[in-house]
Design goal:
Blueprint lengths: L1 E4 L10 H12 L4 E5 L7 E4 L2 E4 L19 E9 L5 E12 L2 E4 L6
Parallel strand pairs: 1-2, 2-4
Antiparallel strand pairs: 3-4, 5-6, 6-7
């Protein structure tokens, strides 16, 4: 597993540079990439059986909330790696920062 603080804050789309680096890391044997830095959720990807989270958003944040990015929302994932090294996601839960604490976001509040 590799955790990367990569890319600029408030990056609206996942850059080609991030995608290329993710592919290179997977080729090098990385099974899980945990990305952060954008301060909001970005899409995840599965590359050759490896899980890539480009940005998991903010779990704890001292930045101002940017409503256009839902920057007070983050994510928690539960993953499994099978005997062949392929990663699958069992659960993905969103979190929200409210009243100076992290709470699970109800699915009906999206």
């Amino acid at each position: 597993m590799v955790s990367l603080h990569w890319g600029p804050n408030w990056e609206s789309i996942v850059s080609e540079e991030k995608k290329n680096l993710a592919r290179q890391l997977v080729i090098s044997g990385v099974k899980i990439i945990h990305g952060h830095s954008a301060h909001h959720l970005q899409p995840f990807d599965i590359i050759n059986g490896s899980m890539v989270f480009y940005s998991m958003g903010d779990f704890i944040d001292d930045y101002a909330v940017k409503p256009e990015y839902n920057s007070n929302v983050g994510g928690i994932a539960t993953l499994n790696i099978n005997q062949y090294g392929h990663v699958s996601m069992d659960v993905f839960r969103k979190t929200i920062i409210q009243n100076l604490q992290v709470n699970l976001l109800n699915s009906d509040a999206n």
